[in-house]
Amino acid sequence: MDYFRKLPGFRRSPSGLEWQVLKKLPLTLLLGTALPALFLWILHSSGLADAALYGRIFIMTVSLVILFWTFMMVIGIAAFIIMLMKGPAYVADPYQSADFNDKEDDPLSRH
To answer: Among 43, 84, 88, 107, which one is least packed by beta carbons within 10 Å?
Structure first.
């Protein structure tokens, strides 16, 4: 039994923006995490902010990074789903339900 039987005559859609997004995602995640971390390191090493202000800025920066990661995860999942949808089509196995009627026996199909 061949579970992954491709649909004959199906043409794959050309790749588009989803591959560009998936290729740039690691660098975007790295920069989106490193830049706020660099900001916090510079702020901490310069001593410009007292402890209370630095604590508030730290919490806001970490929450911003987590929000950024969440956005990037959603964008990555969407690009991956689009990539899968553009892939080859597979033939589904037929499933006959218990109340299935042939078109010959169906009174509604007769005109």
So the answer is: 107
Residue 50, helix vs strand vs coil: coil
How would residue 88 be classed by pLDDT, with cut points 50, 70 and 90? confident
What residues contact residue 38 under an 8 Å CB cut-off, 6+ apart?
Answer: none
Give buried/exposed letters for 91-107 (b at 16+ CB in 10 A, else e).
Answer: eeeeeeeeeeeeeeeee
Beta bridge partners of 90: 6
**What is the pLDDT at residue 105?**
54
Q: Where are the domains of the chain?
A: 17-86
Q: Is 79 exposed, middle or buried (0-12, 13-18, 19+ CB in 10 A)?
A: buried
